[in-house]
Amino acid sequence: SGTPPDGVRAAPAAVLRFRGAGVGWAARGSPQTAGARRRASVPQKLAEALSSQYGLNVFVAGLLLLLAWAVHAAGVGKRDLLCLLTALMMLQLLWMLWYVGRSYAQRRLIRPKDTQAGARWLRGSITLFAFITIILGCLKVGYFVGFSECLSATEGVFPVTHAVHTLLQVYFLWGHAKDIILSFKTLERFGVIHSVFTNLLLWANSVLNESKHQLNEHKERLITLGFGNITIVLDDHTPQCNCTPPALCSTLSHGIYYLYPFNIEYQILASTMLYVLWKNIGRRVDSMPQQKMTCRFDGVLVGAALGLVVLAATIAVVGVYMIHIGCSKSQSESALTMFYLYAIILLLLMGTAGLVGCWIYRVDEKSLDESKNPARKLDVDLLVATASGSWLLSWGSILAIACAETRPSYTWYNLPYSILVIMEKYIQNLFIIESVHQEPDGIPEDIRTLRVVTVYSGEAATLAASGLGSQGVTGNGSSATNGNLCLQQASSKEDREAGWEGVEGTARHPSFLRSGTKRRLLRNITAFLFLCNISLWIPPAFGCRPEYDNGLEEVVFGFEPWIIAVNLAMPFSIFYRMHAAASLFEVYCKI
Amino acid sequence: SGTPPDGVRAAPAAVLRFRGAGVGWAARGSPQTAGARRRASVPQKLAEALSSQYGLNVFVAGLLLLLAWAVHAAGVGKRDLLCLLTALMMLQLLWMLWYVGRSYAQRRLIRPKDTQAGARWLRGSITLFAFITIILGCLKVGYFVGFSECLSATEGVFPVTHAVHTLLQVYFLWGHAKDIILSFKTLERFGVIHSVFTNLLLWANSVLNESKHQLNEHKERLITLGFGNITIVLDDHTPQCNCTPPALCSTLSHGIYYLYPFNIEYQILASTMLYVLWKNIGRRVDSMPQQKMTCRFDGVLVGAALGLVVLAATIAVVGVYMIHIGCSKSQSESALTMFYLYAIILLLLMGTAGLVGCWIYRVDEKSLDESKNPARKLDVDLLVATASGSWLLSWGSILAIACAETRPSYTWYNLPYSILVIMEKYIQNLFIIESVHQEPDGIPEDIRTLRVVTVYSGEAATLAASGLGSQGVTGNGSSATNGNLCLQQASSKEDREAGWEGVEGTARHPSFLRSGTKRRLLRNITAFLFLCNISLWIPPAFGCRPEYDNGLEEVVFGFEPWIIAVNLAMPFSIFYRMHAAASLFEVYCKI
User: Fold this and answer.
1) Which positions, given as ranges, span the membrane (chains A, B) (predicted)?
2) CA-CA distance, A200 to A272, in Å (whole number)?
3) What ipTM is given for this predicted complex?
């Protein structure tokens, strides 16, 4: 054992190279790509920091301009804002064209894909929202033509650019959302992060427009109800000239505000997909065979029927609410009472469904899949982070009820409503997190066996070979290895024993989930929650916001602070519902 | 090859068990712990979600109460706020006592530690800040005694509780910051996350008090300078009765505000350390031997001397600024001009130093260590996130200069200053990120070889054994394996070739960093940047805030919006400097 065998002498270099790449070798696409990567001079961490800091600066600068416009800063007009957004979109367009062109030129190369990113239903929903966004763009162009006398050209250029941007971006996401870019090219990193933050800025812009609109409507209602003690200044941006056919312009203007919620969802969905693409740059993926996800719609009659009833009822309630609110004091109060009672019942149902779902999983005691998966991690983080937005509002309501001096009877419903909102999101998040981390049942038996054999034989062989390796090393005088190897051996043995326990355990609980009843129950629960979340997305997105109309919080916190808090938190609260619905759809397909 | 050998048949159970544990087996402490973990019924992901959602709700509810107090919400007094904070601290105290007691009872068990968490210098600086926090508590008690006639008892109970809390928490962090909790006990997760958010709330409370104080001072200056067009309401919380020795009370009140910045740093440092503890719960650690980090202070005379000059100059500049600002219009302007000129020169120096540091690393072309490390990841994320706070303010200044109608001469200095702030933080972040990801040179040669041999022999053996495994599987009729294995073989071969290239590469650039000159240069740069960041922490922390006094942004954005933006972004900007200094200290010790 004086001289180590050839293989061992070759090893140091191999490992240095392995550590140097930083990313895995498992899914390397082609020799060319790998070669390019090896020669890249900027390490991954540094390239990430370079591009993310650039993106954050673009975002922060854009946000400042948005803020300046929102507070009517001296010298900042809508024109400047639209110019910046148009320029950013143009830049992204150029980059996307370059990327698509380059991909086409190199289409022969085999490139690794992240099979979990950009699921088909996600791309489907983004296409739907993009379609509505393009309609919105057409309405805006119509509006511009009507008021063309007194609007600056940017107001016409912006919607046209936005439409082109939307079309190309949807094409880009269909073709490249799953890409794993391994070449570490600076241009690619910067392009993707630029796209992420451009979409986020477009999102913030839409949210701001929508908030201004909602706030104006709220102020108009307050004027109708005769609240004189609040200084009300309408923040109206109607142009100062006449539209050629006046009826058309007012229709367009109304239509625009009904389409905004879809545009908002489109922008945020696009930025999350692009963010996953960015996180995937230079990532090592396991070349695990991905089973096709097929959504079957049988056996969920009860859940779907209940969900559809909820959907219909919500639309009815929102309709009644919008008609009655702001007409007179008593009508407003009855509309609020109706909404709160309805929401309390709905949230109770949803919370119960979520609890039952969690309980089924807990009974089953299946292990969770905790492998690395940027798309899933982002989904979970977004769920919790955006729920915080609505938790803020709910805690505000609770605090307001606790501190208010006079409490009209209808405001009491606000307390259970707010508590239930907090509880329901808490439970639903747990249910979704547990669901998306379940190992899919759909993996065919032979692939399972294969995976098992590969891992096991690898482990056994490592043992054998490390015995060999340690010979080589002990020749070099290091004795620490032996301890290390003993530990490995011991733990491996323990694994095997535990394995036998596991087999007995599985035998004792004969696969619980696969038994039809439990699975059908879970599918029904998921379908019901999916439709409920879609339903609960509608009220705040289309202007049914009891946080405004309730009045209690405004009295306690003051008009301005509460309005600012609501306008900052509400977009996240709305996004939560749509995002939860999307996650539940994924869960549904998985079960 | 009809029936697989015995080992293969045993495998499925072993693997199920392996996947089931979800966390690694490498660092399992003792059979007892492992057993407890295996029987834990709540999977890690779920336990994380359970506790983090609880923590977020506590935080959000506390923030709402802070907001309510800040905007003088009807019915919310300082008493309610202090009651909540005291209750949260009490709960944390109970939990810490329980944890410390249990750890003492189980002190015989070998528990894994995260050697990278809770570095000694970190615990040292937290002790220093905690000491000042306790002095602050004493001053507050003195203030309470002086005004005891008209202050509620909570104002006396709060500082006492806070002092006890601080003492125990520092003891706790000294003893347990490196713990890796493997038992997945719900109580532990909830306790740690409760501590994280309690400290964050205490931080927010201190920041709010400090901001109110700064804002009052600013308003007083504006009154002195005769700005009548802004409606100025002093937000003063001086009690309505007389203090027994009046001179004492005013001294105490002044002293309190000079100590707040240290208290703020203490709270945020404590919460980051606790957060790392929370992230480490149930984590798998590589049992890598950690070399002792020893900081030597030789050969950095130039960097340290330059840094100390900067420190002294900054204190002088801040002193002059504070005396001159608000006295008269011309004196204010000259103070601002002086500050901007000084800051521009300093930032230019720092930017250059950072660029040189980055260039040295780039020339060296060493690979980066990208292994998992929650403490480091948090550090890097915090650097970029908190820098965004000051980027927001800088972009605000740039926008204000671009849009302002009249620009007094001294405001022009604001433009290069703001641009340099953005650039300097961008460069400095890159330098720190690259530094903390460097593989430490200190690992002895034999451990390197050992690591190399272990990895390599494992890989080769996997190849051999997977050939064996595939025989068994092809017997079952699956042919996908062969492709997979070929890929593995191919990539492994490629690794080996690449490895040889790597060896040649290393030979060509003979270890650049270890050559004394480069290393000494890096150490000097780091020492200089460390002292510069400490210097730049002083001005905003002690009330030298040109963003207020400059006046330009207030005119463009309006008083209220700009003040809100500054008060939200400034705490992060201040924290950035202290955090960057801490990171640079770590880097210094590493080089």
Assistant:
1) 54-75, 81-100, 121-145, 157-174, 186-204, 258-278, 299-324, 339-361, 521-539, 559-576
2) 9
3) 0.76
Residue A300, CA distances (Å) to A304, A522, A533 in order: 6, 9, 17
Cα(A107)–Cα(B351) distance, integer angstroms: 43
Confidence band (pLDDT; 50, 70, 90) for A8?
very low
Give the Cα separation of B530 and B535 in Å (integer).
9
| pLDDT score recorded for residue A475 | 38
Residues with pLDDT less than 50, chain B: 1-40, 442-513
Helix (H) or strand (E) holding A431: helix A414-436
**Residue A169: its pLDDT value, please?**
93
For B564, residues 6+ apart whose C-beta sits below 8 A from its C-beta are none
Question: Which DSSP symbol is given to A411?
Answer: G
Look up tokens 């712990």; give the residue.
Answer: B33
Distance set, CA B217 to CA B207, B257, B298, B340, B571 (Å):
15, 12, 44, 21, 17
Is B426:B347 a contact under the CB 8 Å cutoff? no
B41 CB within 8 Å of a chain A CB? yes
Over the stretch B127-144, which tens digit does the pLDDT of each residue have? 999 999 999 998 888 888
Residues of B in contact with A404 (CB under 8 A): 74-75
The three-class DSSP label of residue A438 is: strand
Contacts of A410 (CB under 8 A, 6+ apart): A333, A336, A337, A340
Nearest to B460 among A7, A43, A455 (CB): A7
Taking CA atoms, A532 is separated from A122, A266, A349, A529, A536, in Å, by 19, 20, 10, 5, 6
Residue B367 contacts A, CB cutoff 8 Å: yes
* Residue in this structure with the two tokens 């089924």, named with its chain if needed: A360
**Calculated CA dihedral for residues A143, A144, A146, A147, nearest 10 degrees:** 120
B335 CA: distance to closest CA in chain A (Å) = 26
* A395 CB neighbour count, 10 Å cutoff: 23
Query: Is residue A502 within 8 angstroms of chain B, CB to CB?
Result: yes
The answer to whether residues A424 and B93 touch, using CB atoms and an 8 Å cutoff, is: no
- At B440 the pLDDT is 62
Chain B residue with minimum CA distance to A469: B457
CB burial class (10 A; 0-12, 13-18, 19+) of residue B217? middle
User: What does pLDDT average to over chain A?
Assistant: 76
pLDDT value for A547: 84
Residue pLDDT, tens place only, B345-379: 999 999 999 999 888 888 776 667 777 777 788 88
pLDDT at residue B93, rounded to an integer: 94
Residue B100: partners with Cβ closer than 8 Å, 6 or more residues away: B171, B172, B175, B176
Between CA B24 and CA B28 the distance in angstroms is 8
**pLDDT tens-place string over residues A419-445:** 999 999 999 999 998 888 877 654 444
Residue from B16, B208, B425 whose CB has the most chain A CBs within 10 Å, to mutate: B16
Percentages helix, strand, coil for chain A (3-state, rounded to 5) are: 75, 0, 25
Q: How many CB atoms within 10 Å of residue B484?
A: 16
**What are the percentages of helix, strand and coil residues in chain B, rounded to 5?**
75, 0, 25
Can you give the pLDDT at residue B146? 82
Mutation for testing the A interface, residue in B3, B51, B53 having most A CBs under 10 Å: B53
> Phi/psi at B73 (nearest 5 deg)?
-60, 145
B158, B268 in Cβ contact below 8 A? no
A182-196, A431-445, A570-584: which range is least confident on average? A431-445
| Number of Cβ within a 10 Å radius of residue A324 | 18
Residue of A nearest to B501 (CA): A13
Q: Do B454 and A369 touch (CB under 8 A)?
A: no
Q: Identify the band that residue A49 occupies on the pLDDT scale cut at 50, 70 and 90.
A: confident
